[in-house]
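Our consortium's second objective concerns turning raw sequence data into structural hypotheses that experimental partners can test. To show how far this objective has progressed, the report includes one record in full. It was chosen at random from the queue rather than selected for favorable results. The single chain below, 180 residues long, was entered without modification.
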Amino acid sequence: RGLTSRWSKDGRWLVYEFLAAEGGGADLSAIRVGDSTQLPLANSRFIERNASLSPDGRWLLYEANTTGAFEVYVRPFPKTSEGLYQVSSGGGVDPKWSADGREIFFRNGNNELARVAVARSTTFAVDDQRVLFSLRGVVDWDVMPDGQRFVLLRDRQGQQRRKLVVVENFFQELNARVPR
């Protein structure tokens, strides 16, 4: 599993995970654009990973194994020491915000896609947790912007895996190679 990083919706923050110096776990930090100061977000002897900020930038969503199993958590952002809210129970990984920030989706301990509603208030609260469908055979997934549809990547055993190719400075390369 690779280390992840994600930009805030407004493009002002980069939230990332990194390997901790001690204990072999992963921790979470952020950097504000234009500032080189690392802001610790969730750093402990446990593994904290797969973080993202809510669309309004007020909440940090991530998974951690502080209970022995991975669960989904939310903290206020950027002052993460001011609160900790457990979203899942019985296991939770791969958390994602809906585009409007009113829902959180995650893979629960039974390998199902679960959804919790996020209450609109000055503090963080969730209610109405429900299971949507099984994710057996699904290796990755994402929620569409409407919050009603999902993209599922199924595991096709025996088939050749495809490679992801990242091209940096694509348009500069294209302009240099294709004359106008």
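The partners drew two points from this record. The chain is about 5% helix and 45% strand. Residues 72 and 87 are 5 Å apart (CA to CA). Both points have been shared with the crystallography group to help prioritize constructs.
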